[in-house]
Amino acid sequence: MTVLRFTQAGNLIDAIRLPFRKDKELYRAFHNMLGFYPHDISLYQEALLHKSMLAHAKSGTPLNNERLEFLGDAVLDAIVGEIVFHHFPRKREGFLTNTRSKIVQRESLGKLAIEIGLDKLIRCNDHNQTHNSYLAGNAFEALIGAIYLDRGYACCKRFIIEKILHRHIDIDKVASQEVNFKSKLLEWCQKHKLTLEFVLLDETKSDDGSPLFNTKIVIGGHECSRGKGYSKKESHQKASKNALHRLKHDRKLHDELIGKRAD
């Protein structure tokens, strides 16, 4: 109750100050989206700035949303992990990990960014906006990083619960959905015009004598991941899941593959 009164009082003060702000429209846009006014608007502006704009800080260092994206990714994982942990008190670690992964996967974050109108605020040149499928999802993670630095963890968590989960995500429905990682990886490769190969490395026996398949994935000539399973299908799924995770987090690999396609 005290926190709520503090938040309402803070928003009232920020609303009174609004007419004197330099970027009034941007402040209003974020208030409508987040439910509060930014304190340090520069953080949110940075969260909207894609590297294709080639912007630089006064010191001369490149200025874009990649650092905030890195921070937001970690904060988002922690918040969603905590929410999922408490929402499913009887479920095991594997179930919790899969559910969190479904919520924070780049495709889901991109859709959320569009649903809350964040995509309309992103500063990016037209070429990259057309071809970078990760653009909106990256900006969403950067936004979380900006909120964390500006308002702290509790505010980030409140935003995710009140503005995202309550309005856009049904956790129970998401948890029950089966994710076809192989299909998602195939779609990604087709979209970026890249070859995708599943190579069976070996077939061994597990401790109980069951067959165990080891598969590697090669995208555009680059080995991206491996996965083991008790069937070829399971090994393909696990390797595909690992490849999607790496494509999300390994920016160097992602850029190399996209650059190769552009060549």
Structure explained in plain terms:
This protein is mainly alpha-helical. Helices cover 62% and strands 10% of the residues. It contains 13 helices and 3 strands; from the N terminus they run αααααααααααβββαα. The chain has helices at residues 2-17, 24-34, 41-47, 66-87, 93-104, 106-115, 126-131, 135-151, 153-168, 171-176, 181-191, 232-249, 251-262; strands spanning 196-205, 211-219, 222-229. Strands 1-2-3 form a 3-stranded antiparallel beta sheet, covered by helices on one side. Helix 3 (41-47) runs antiparallel to helix 8 (135-151), helix 4 crosses helix 5 and helix 4 crosses helix 9. The longest helix is centred in the N-terminal third of the chain and has 22 residues, at 66-87. It is globular and about 70 Å long. The chain starts with a helix and ends with a helix.
Q: Give the helices and strands as they follow along the chain.
A: HHHHHHHHHHHEEEHH
Beta-strand residue fraction? 5-15%
The largest sheet, given as strand count, sense and whether it forms a barrel, is: 3 strands, antiparallel
Averaging pLDDT over every residue, what do you get? 85
Share of residues in helices:
55-70%
Give the radius of gyration. Answer: 21 Å
Runs in which pLDDT lies below 50 for 5 or more consecutive residues are 1-6
Give the count of helical stretches: 13
Helix/strand-derived class?
A: mainly alpha
Quantity of strands, as a count: 3
Distance between the termini: 58 Å
**Spatial strand order of the main sheet:** 1-2-3
